[in-house]
Give the backbone structure.
Amino acid sequence: MSTPGKTQIVIIGGGAAGLELAAKLGSHYGRKNHDIIMVDCNRTHIWKPLLHEVATGSLDANMDEVGYRSHCHRWGYRYFYGSLAGIDRTNRRVRLAPINDEKGREIIAAHEIRYDYLVLAFGSVTNDFGTPGVAENCFFLDSRGQADRFRDQLLNQCLRVSRTMTDDLQSDARVRIAIVGAGATGVELAAELFNAADALGYYGLEVFDRGRMEVTLIEAGPRILPQLPDRLAAAAQSELETLGVRVLVDTPVVESTPEGMVMRSGDRIDADLQVWAAGVKAKPIAEGLDGLELARSGQVVVRPSLQSTSDDRIFAIGDCAFCKLPQNERPVPPRAQAAHQMAATAFANLKRLMTGKPPVDFVYKDHGSLVSLSRFSTVGTLMGNLVGGRMAVEGRMARFIYLSLYRMHLLAIHGWIKGSALIAVSHVNRIVRPRLKLH
């Protein structure tokens, strides 16, 4: 599937990196001499750092998601619904897996798309490290569908406890939730659960409150939030414990059972809902990537130009890229800010290659890390490259900056006019929309 005579650029993945790049390329080149194609296995985009809010009902994804078909029409690229099955580098083809409906009936057969340049931006998934029982018993927060399923089960458990309390006022029934992994996702989810618990009283569960929410946050490492300085991590842990979160560090999980988590010590934490948020890896590709160099995490190894080490015509950006820059001991971290910056560099280098110029190296600017503890608090560091990550921010200022990161993403994918309008609408929605999405 191709357009004769046009330079064809195929982008696999419509996350923060892929969608921003598609918008940049489509806006710059249009459809006269170039054919920009973006492929994603979803029909809509939701900013991944918001999925913990979708999972608790604090965010209505229907209001904040971006439909790929309307977006591509506006920005001058084409969108294909599908998932990458494999690559044929010799013939410059990507193979897309067949698409089936919920009954297994084939909608679109497996097919190929030609490319002149290929950009891999298919993102990451949660890494369960092969821990027994995790795949069967735990929720992951890698997609909107997974977040929606967790929210449904969370509401069911809250309803169960509320009904039990109505029948027996002396009942000690609890909604027991175990979260493995105390990075940003795990910590933010733990805090957001209490925000949801506070709001449920407004929506028919009058006898339910945060005291009925029993949340355990489990971390194998020596402390929570390893990306933040010790003082800020300690402040975040204190805030969580004040809310009612039980925080366990130096506590590796060796198994998940239908009843709960089993620790290396042999202790078990009983849980009605289990969430695994410990580490990420590149999304696996069924037929492989035709010899591209991969890191142990499954990420595509790239040079500083973001071109793969195996093929100059193939780029990798975002969470699926393993980019270790000169003078750096560690690769660029899988963060939204890195995806945004990589999209800009890939756009510049594709333009340079198509005009015969050499590519430039990617320069990662670490603007720091922010972690939101829902409406209760926000902590983090700013301008990591400038002051060594030591500029600590907390409270309202940190919350404002945290929200600004999402607004920057909206401006990047929608442009200044529509993006600014959506930001204004979001302020109105905070007043007119329900505090929780309950359906």
Observations:
- The radius of gyration is 22 Å.
- The first strand starts at residue 7 and ends at 12.
